[in-house]
Amino acid sequence: MNAPRILVIVGTPFAGSLNHALARSYADAARTGGADVRVVDLAKDAVPQHPSQRDDVRLPRTEADVQLPPEVAASVADVDWADHLVFFFPQWWGSLPGALKTWIDRVFVRGFAYRYRPTGRLWDKLLTGRSARIVMTMDSPAFWNAWVYRDAPIRSLRTATLEYCGIKVRGVTRLAEVRHSSEADRERWVLGMASFGATDAGSVAPRARDELVAA
Per mean pLDDT, which range of 73-77, 115-119, 205-209 is the poorest? Predict the structure, then answer.
């Protein structure tokens, strides 16, 4: 039986963060549970440059087209490989960190993540069959995030990005008031991520390998 393939994305440019501890706990437990895990760490791995032309946000169709930079192509291949994606990131200014947003802009490109149909207003969701989990840390209280920010980063990532491309979100976790949290709070959160990792390792259904576009 094929092991589920899980891609963990740590969406902060700051090394040694709480998000890194959460992601490491999740990944370790998922590996122990039998999953094959890869990690994209935007504090360590190359963050793609912000797109500056239309060719930067679409998959090359021919050899004559502008090719994806190596770091972008590597992340595209990682998403293509994955059965399940897990995003860890802090809320910044009521939104996603710029590094994560740029990574999404360069990796979830037209022709890979979605495709407009020749006629009409509908589109094809090219990442169907995958699932995702979202974990967001924030200094704001939960009520402030819900009523003032309207849960903007989650709505953007879950609805306007992942579900738009066909990825089903299995769960969303919001860890609030991090700046005022205790050591015991943070230890409890880290242990909770291990529980998620074990659960996902045992419940994510691997896709048929012939569905993969590029390994």
Answer: 205-209
Q: Write the CB contacts of 184 (distance below 8 Å, at least 6 apart in sequence).
A: none
pTM (2 d.p.): 0.95
Contact 41, 211 (CB under 8 A): no
Helix (H, G, I), strand (E, B) or coil at 135: strand
- Give me the helices (H) in 158-206, please: 183-203
The whole-chain average pLDDT of the chain stands at 95
Q: Say how many C-beta atoms besides its own lie within 10 A of residue 116's C-beta.
A: 12
Q: Which token pair is 157?
A: 């990532």
Distance CA 194, CA 198 (A): 6
3-class DSSP state for residue 156?
helix
pLDDT of residue 212: 45
Q: For residues 88 and 23, is the Cβ–Cβ distance under 8 A?
A: yes
